[in-house]
Amino acid sequence: KEKTPGIGHARCGRSHWGVRNGEKMPISTSKYRYVDCDPDLCIGCQICEYVCSYTKTGEYNSYRSRIRTVRVDEVLITAITCRTCENPPCVISCPQNALSQDVDTGIIHVDSQKCDACAWCVDACPFGAISINPATKLAEICDQCEELEEGPQCVLWCPKEALSLTTPEQQAQKARRELVKEEVVGPKRKE
I need a labelling partner for 74 at 20 to 30 A (CA). Which of 41, 87, 97, 187 fits? Predict the structure, then answer.
């Protein structure tokens, strides 16, 4: 099955850019749950990366993590992982049909028998949430630790509780509450 080059600029759902704390950042328009990071709480400690890599590979290696700590300039630190997009560009772009999306959870699965490490999914992801494992030659994407009853280990172990498993609707409700508080009480002060 042939794919058109340039699909890497596909959008996640209806749109994929928003502004958070004055910075232009990709946002999810999915109905599915995903791991979100509050940059006001994140300190960039990378514990999420180490916990993820240990959970998935048995070694503490941030390069094998499915979540990435990102520093934007010197003031914004956040963590990025799969946003479980509706109509995910990574799945659409895969020329081997190696990626599929669970219709109930939105989690992207990689078929190890089909994935050839072409990295089209890496280019297509507007969040930079996919990597190719150089040892296995397979795409690696957050699966929210679906095999573990307690869920995403990064959320569980984050020392600042900056990570949460949420949906875009839950995030919108939280933003509305914060806006109302700001209107009534006044702006939140930075410490």
Answer: 187
Nearest alpha-carbon partner for 107 in 138, 86, 76, 135: 86
Residues 6+ away with beta carbon under 8 Å from 133: 64, 139, 140
DSSP H or E stretch at residue 175: helix 168-185
CB atoms within 10 A of CB 85: 28
Instruction: Look at strands 18-20 and 76-80 and give their pairing.
Output: unpaired
Tokens, residue 15: 């749109």
d(CA 62, CA 181): 38
For residue 50, the one-letter residue type is Y
- Of 129, 161, 153, 133, residue with least CA distance to 48: 153
C-alpha span between 90 and 189 (Å, rounded): 39
What pTM does this model have? Answer: 0.77
pLDDT in tens, 116-161: 999 999 999 999 999 999 999 999 999 999 999 999 999 999 999 9
Selection from 78, 79, 63, 55 nearest residue 132 by Cα: 63
Q: Three-state SS for 23?
A: strand
Helix (H) or strand (E) holding 78: strand 76-80
- Tell me what the pLDDT averaged over the chain comes to: 85
Q: How does pLDDT run across 6-31, given as a tens digit for each residue?
A: 333 333 433 344 444 455 445 445 78
